[in-house]
Design brief:
Blueprint lengths: L3 E5 L4 H12 L3 E6 L11 E5 L5 H8 L4 E4 L13 H22 L3 E7 L7 H20 L2 E7 L5 E2 H7 L7 H16 L5 E6 L7 H5 L1 H12 L3 H7 L14 H7 L7 H13 L8 E2 L8
Parallel strand pairs: 1-2, 1-4, 2-3, 4-5, 5-6, 6-8
Antiparallel strand pairs: 7-9
Helix pairs in contact: 1-6, 2-3, 3-4
This protein binds nicotinamide-adenine-dinucleotide.
EC number: 5.1.3.2
Protein name: UDP-glucose 4-epimerase
Enzyme class: isomerase
Length: 293
Amino acid sequence: MATKVTITGAAGNAGQAVGRLVAEAGFEVRMADMVAPAPDLASLGEFVRCDTRTPTDVRRAVAGADAVVHLAAWHSAHRPPVSDATIFAVNVDGTFNLLEACRDEGIGSLVFASSMAYGWSGVYAVTKVLGEELCRAYHEMTDASVAMLRYHEFIPAPYLEFGPRLLRNGVDRADVAAATLAALRATLDRSAGLFCTIVHTDHGMPPEVVADFRRLGPGWCEEHVPGARGLIEKYALALPERVEQHDLTEAARVLSWRPSVGFLDFLRDLKERDARGEDVSALRVPGELPRAG
Ligand SMILES: NC(=O)c1ccc[n+]([C@@H]2O[C@H](COP(=O)([O-])OP(=O)(O)OC[C@H]3O[C@@H](n4cnc5c(N)ncnc54)[C@H](O)[C@@H]3O)[C@@H](O)[C@H]2O)c1
């Protein structure tokens, strides 16, 4: 029998990509969200309408599940903005309700969507601190295997902003989904215990290029993608002084996950579009490199 996975926030940006990947991997998916997922996601599995602020909703959402991927949250990037009070209620009370329901159901495998915003700089940031603390407590109280993933940014953006963002705080949504699936597997086979990692990009750059990207980056890109220097100039890509880069070796060791999409992939994609004469100035992407064509 297939392993049953409830995904909260399944209709959202991460939820769509995670739901597809988890279903493709052979899990039985239950999508829990306040709003119904897009029609093209209907075949992934059952949809349970659920407001995580309501305990009976979350109990229904996790009933019979073997594992839960908890993505449902409001963040600060929504326009028009969501109030701080709603962000707090959904992200903190909603997480508390979900964990209570998981405990009643005896769920021993949990993946929690945290954020690089984690910290004390605002209400959203604090909700991720409290969310992680609640997850730690869940692990302590139940011995469940819990993975907390501090995603970098994958909000929908203009294509020409998305690419350079990968050099800063950006990550491709496909990498977010792959890391989440890897974390799900690691919690199910209990190799994760209590685990927390950053989910970010890795460009495979030498340290001197990372540290001095604006000066050395175009040449390094040109070596790997001929024509890159011209593309950077033609599209006035805003390059950072230095590249944001984190040590992801623990994620590779514990989750067997490594990011697969970096700035060079963006440049290769841009090169193909440019060669076809495509106008990319108005192209928007869902926080993920689009398939060419
Ligand atoms: N997008 C990013 O750049 C980013 C970065 C770091 C962390 N995260 C985290 O990743 C997760 C997913 O983010 P996203 O960008 O896909 O968000 P999203 O806004 O696209 O999706 C969130 C989903 O949660 C649902 N939701 C909201 N309130 C709910 C409630 N009370 N009950 C049930 N469902 C509810 C929404 O309907 C939506 O479908 C969130 O936990 C977010 O904090 C996102």
